[in-house]
Description:
With about 260 residues, the protein is α/β, with parallel strands linked by helices. Helices cover about 40% and strands about 15% of the residues. GO terms for molecular function: acyltransferase activity; hydrolase activity.
Amino acid sequence: MYFREDGNPQGKPIVLVHGFACSLHWxxxxxxxxxxxxxxxxxxxxxxxxxxxxxxxxxxDQTHSLAAVLxxxxxxxxxxxxxxxxxxxxxxxxAISARVSEIVIMSQSxxxxxxxxPRGHSLVGLPMVPQLVHHLxxxxxxxxxxxxxxRPGFDIGSGFDDPRQPLHDRAVMSRGMYRAVAQTRDLELxxxxxxxxxxxxxxxxxxxxxxHDQFFDCEASITRYRAAGATVRVIENAGxxxxxxxxxxxxxxxxxxxxxxxxx
Length: 264
C-alpha cells in the first residue's frame, strides 16, 4: 500500500483515507492545514492510485492492509480519518488496532438505505459491466456524475493541483472496485451498518457531513450517528467531499476534535 508522509515527524499521527475512485490527492488541500503540528500520513487504497492492483479490494481486506501500514510505521495514538468508502476502513482499523486512538468518518451514511446514488449503480458489479463502463464512458459523463459529489456550483478542478485529477484517479482504479463497492460493501453494511460499528467501538468517533451531500441523506445519517454516540459536525457549505470543497473547515474540525475533553 503506497503512502506519503508530510508534516511534523514528532507530531501526533493523522492518517487520511480517501474514498471510491479517488486517491491521496483528495486531501492535498487539507494536509498543509495540519502539517505544522501533526505527522500527516496519506494512503492510496488497494486498487487505487500508486498502490493499484486487483487484490484486497473489499472493505475488510482494505482494513488489514491499512493496519499493516500502521504497524510498518510503528504508529501510536493515531487518528484515522476516512472519507466515503474509506469510512469502512477507518472504523475497521480502529476496531482491530491498538495504534488508533480516534476515528473520523466523513460523508458516509450508515448503510445504503440512505443513499441517493446514480440510478443503476448496482449493475456495475456484474461481470463485464465494469470494463464497459471504464472504456465507453466519455469524460463529460464522468464529470456529470462527479458533480453529484460536490455542492452545486463548486468548480471541481479548483480543488486539485491538477484539475483533471478525478479523471486520472478513476482511470487507474481497478475494475474490481465496482463489485467491491456495489455488492460486497452493500452486503457488509446490511449485516452491520456503520452506526452499529460506531456504537460497538470503545474509541471517540467524529462524524462529519456536508449539508449539500447529494449522495447520502445528511439529516438521517447524522441522527443515526449521534444516537450511536458519535460527535457530529455539519459543514454548511459542503457537499459529499468536504476534504476538497472546504479544507479549512475540515482541518479545523479535526484539530477541535483532538483537543476536545473526553468523558472519564
